[in-house]
Amino acid sequence: LSKPQMRARIQGLRSPAEPTTPPWRGATVSAEDEPLLLTLQSAVKALLQTAQHLSMLTENASEVEVFCNTLEPVLLHKFKSRQFGIFTVHPWALVEHSEHRGDAEAEAVRLARSVGSSDAARLRAWIYVQLNQRSLRQTLSELLDDQAIRGMFFTEPALLNRLECRQLLSDLLRPLAGL
User: Fold this and answer.
1) Does the reported pTM lie above 0.70?
2) Cβ contacts of residue 160 below 8 Å, gap of 6+?
3) DSSP assigned state of 83
4) Theoretical Cys-Cys bridge with 122: which of 24, 36, 112, 141, CB 3.0 to 4.6 Å?
């Protein structure tokens, strides 16, 4: 989809009562990145509505799948998929670094490793675990606040390499901790 088509599609997802201006409109987020954040915002809203009726957030709920499908492109934005010119890496390598941040984080990584057969599957499993532990925002924020980790995994213009974008991501994910 083109940028105007994406914007129109996102606008169509809003109910008439919702404001049409995203909360970060005053921040310095480029038009290229905005669709990622707008789509994530819509996915979080849908997930919050569905989660009220679920005890576990799993792939069986379409809103959880949509949320994961919108969070993953944010993590992939300007991600350094080639390391040292020979290794191909995935954002799973980024979240693996969370295992050194506490017992709950180590358990989430261990569980994801045990059920995922690929880096993409392990990342998705880790997101499910973090959602159910209500710790996705906190864990991602801690990882992304570490400049050394960001420098290792993201190019300079990456969405998550910019403070205002990391803060926006944290703000978007904050309501998920209260499910």
Assistant:
1) yes
2) 74, 75, 77, 144, 150, 154, 166, 169
3) E
4) 112
Residue with tokens 């008439």: 16
pLDDT per residue over 83-130, tens digit each?
A: 666 667 788 989 998 998 889 999 999 999 999 889 999 999 999 999
Q: CB 8: neighbour CB atoms within 10 A?
A: 11
> CA 24, CA 37: separation in Å to the nearest integer?
9
| Residue 93, token pair as written in the block | 């390598």
Distance separating alpha carbons of residues 4 and 98, to the nearest angstrom: 37
Alpha-carbon distance 144 to 82, whole Å? 19
C-alpha 166: how far from chain center: 10
